[in-house]
Write a structure and sequence with these properties.
five-stranded mixed β-sheet; about 575 residues; six-stranded mixed β-sheet; globular; single chain; 15 helices; alpha/beta
């Protein structure tokens, strides 16, 4: 009898263990499905945001919006549920504006109200109230809109939407500012700084959901140390990266542009101890960082300290995150009710292509670049080629997947090298192309060559990189181990491939009509403008502007068209090859 009882107990225990294991496996599988669908849906949403061809289809907006709402409604306690509900409201709001559909506006209003009711303390609650106010204002419901804005103005003073809501509320309620003017204050004498100290004049920043670049500008070189602090859950502090600047003071005129969305939360600075200033970056998540300096030059008379931060994987949920969201709570995972085919349909709508290209016309403004024998300036030729290239890619690029083409500059203005790379990152470039003309002391030097980021012992390439970097070969060496880290993490193989296609295509295009075309090939050199792009990046030296024959050609529309033809064909070959591999 006892043996039967033991056997029965053993069987019951075994069945319970197996049931628990199967249930856990079911939860895990469902969670993976939800996560996969969540990520695919965000990828498609990014394309809709970028005004692609897919954004013209009403049903694609419906697919994205309904998928976000379904993911939220299946489990409102899921860590990504608040973001899904917020995104659903945003999608339908944008859809209503694009297609003039009142029913979509109603959905956006309903979902936004649902958000603030269910997640009133979430970091996106103020954005949701702002959307409620804007929708009601468009409908002519001024009273309802004012009530929504009041929720932000009187209770969310720290929100980044506070100033917007305050102005909106003042407009709706008819609040008038006093017309009385205060007497002009006496101009304070210029502040004196300690002798021998560097003065920080500017702090600039660019940020996306998984990348941040911050540049500190000073009037002289600075010795610095950097350190990273991990997130502290007990103190509720996010990861921080700071630099201590020796013998440095920060000017009272430093004004940091408002930080809206992206990986970067805020920047603070203060005197850390006598003679040392500290600049601290607060980041939502942090996988790695690099810090390097750029010396003063004739083109850029400021010493620059560049801080690059990479987020912990390009998490899709960071697109809308304003503050470090409290999405780490654990809730039960329910089996997905989304049809299996929906993920496939999203992938089909998404596709795999090279979509966004950023073109960088080298030099500009007070930096003319190389100058030809008759006075032709490199900056002007670079801009002409870049504009023509953008036009052609917009006209023909759709046939091989190109949806967005941007210029780092469209006028004759100066942009620091570190900002050009940041623009490419912010635009989420798939390819970054910097356009230049070569220069040499020898007037007979001629030819076309394409560069990618890399090391080299070739003195000619190093001298060219030093000239384009507005520094010296010694200045390149001072980048040291930091430059080495960038080069090791660069998209070397992809850059080599696209550079190979482009170089070969330019030579073929130009050689059809012109003689004495010197193919100088694809080379490597440490160009600062390519540092940190993290996408296939190349710098094209289209011809030697210092060579009389090639300068004359660069003045010709026909020659420029031949160069542009070659670049377009090279990008097309690379894009088509990428699609085949995908």
């Amino acid at each position: 009898m006892k043996s039967r009882t033991k056997l029965f107990s053993f069987l019951i225990t075994s069945i319970c263990i197996v049931s628990i294991c199967l249930l856990t496996l079911s939860f895990a599988t469902a969670n993976e499905k939800n996560r996969a669908l969540f990520e695919e849906n965000f990828k498609l949403y990014r394309q809709l945001e970028s005004n692609s061809e897919k954004a013209k289809r009403s049903e694609t907006w419906d697919l994205v919006g309904s998928t976000f709402y379904r993911l939220y409604s299946q489990d409102p306690e899921w860590k990504n549920a608040p973001l899904c509900l917020f995104a659903a409201a945003r999608v339908y709001d944008k859809k209503s504006l694009r297609f003039k559909t009142p029913e979509d506006s109603e959905k956006a209003l309903q979902y936004s109200r649902e958000f603030v009711k269910r997640y009133p303390k979430d970091s996106l609650a103020d954005d949701s109230w702002l959307r409620v106010g804007r929708i009601l204002e468009r409908r002519g419901d001024k009273k309802g809109a004012a009530t929504a804005y009041q929720r932000i103005v009187y209770g969310m003073e720290e929100a980044d939407t506070y100033e917007i809501a305050k102005k909106k509320l003042a407009t709706l309620t008819g609040a008038k500012t006093s017309k009385k003017t205060k007497p002009a204050a006496k101009k304070a004498p210029p502040k004196k700084y300690p002798k021998g100290y560097a003065v920080v004049k500017k702090i600039r920043h660019w940020s996306t959901d998984d990348y941040t670049r911050v540049v500190i500008e000073a009037d002289r070189e600075i010795k610095y140390t950097s350190n990273m602090l991990r997130a502290d859950p007990e103190l509720k502090t996010p990861p921080r990266l700071y630099v201590d600047l020796e013998k440095t003071v920060i000017s009272d005129s430093v004004n940091i542009e408002p930080i809206t969305k992206g990986l970067l939360e805020r920047i603070s600075f203060a005197s850390n101890r006598p003679g040392v200033s500290r600049v601290v970056l607060y980041i939502k998540d942090l996988e790695g960082h690099k810090v390097f300096s750029l010396r003063k030059s004739e083109q850029n008379p400021s010493f620059r300290l560049v801080m690059d931060i990479k987020g912990a994987g390009a998490q899709p949920e960071k697109i809308f995150a304003k503050d470090a969201p409290s999405y780490d709570r654990q809730g039960p995972s329910l089996e997905s009710k989304v049809p299996e085919g929906e993920i496939a349909s999203l992938k089909q709508a998404l596709g795999l292509k090279v979509r966004t290209i950023v073109i960088d016309p080298g030099h500009g403004g007070h930096d003319p670049g190389a100058i030809g024998p008759s006075g032709l300036r490199e900056k002007d030729v670079n801009l002409k080629i870049a504009k023509r290239l953008r036009e052609r890619l917009i006209e023909e690029g759709k046939s091989f997947g190109i949806e967005n083409v941007y210029l780092t500059r469209s006028t004759d203005r100066f942009i620091p090298l570190e900002e050009r790379t940041a623009i490419a990152k912010k635009r989420k470039a798939d390819i970054f192309i910097s356009i230049h003309c070569n220069g040499a002391r020898r007037k007979k030097a001629h030819g076309i060559e394409t560069y990618i980021l890399g090391f080299t012992d070739d003195q000619t390439s190093l001298q060219l990189a030093a000239r384009e970097n507005a520094t010296t070969t010694k200045g390149l060496n001072e980048l040291g181990s930091t430059l080495k880290q960038y080069i090791l993490s660069a998209k070397k193989e992809e850059s080599q491939q696209v550079a190979g296609y482009v170089q070969k295509s330019i030579i073929q295009s130009v050689s059809v009509k012109y003689k004495y075309v010197n193919n100088k090939g694809v080379k490597k050199a440490p160009f600062v403008v390519l540092i940190g792009a993290d996408v296939p990046s190349l710098l094209i030296e289209t011809s030697f502007i210092t060579n009389p024959r090639e300068e004359k050609r660069l003045k010709s529309e026909a020659y420029i068209n031949r160069i542009v033809n070659g670049i377009v064909l090279g990008i097309k070959k690379y894009s088509m090859q990428t699609q085949k591999v995908s």
